Amino acid sequence: MGRLYLVRHGETLFNVQHKIQGWCDSPLTARGIAQAKRLAAYFDPLPLDHAYSSTAERAVDTAELIIHGRLPVCHLKALKEMNYGVFEGESQSLNPARPKDFETFFVRYGGESSNTTGQRLLKALTEIMQQPDHQNVLAVSHSAACFNFLRQLQDPTEVLAGGFPNGAVLVFDYDITGFHLLRVDRQTAQNL
């Protein structure tokens, strides 16, 4: 059995500006850097054997701050955020009003469906956890990517209701039957 720690990257400039990020990028803010450093303190006592991140700068920087040279960080495109097509870099006020509408809305504008995003992460994270010596794995990704991954496994309503702020950690056990959510740790994002 393995354990996966799936982390949302630290706060970014676009988060503060309420802009849609997706596959485009913006740097971590001072608060985002502080969140990543708090995550380092969270992970330091844990026996991590591998670390992965999305190829987006905000995820790479978060992962590097968490690991701070302890392990190499492997960058994977499959862990990238959902693609929002022409809406990337635009105001979040342009997002659909209902969560259900996110499922296919962006496809007609050159983006991905939420199911495509979730399946992409499920495939990548399953392949990671099936590798030998992958018992305690860190993976840094993005809000919608993490949420849509969770949607592939269970009803995410309760987790979404509790929020999934920057720096939050989804902790999963992984075994022959797949991923099983143990808890959501949100404390690294609070009180900053």
UniProtKB/TrEMBL annotation:
Pfam families: His_Phos_1. PROSITE patterns: PG_MUTASE. This is Histidine phosphatase family protein.
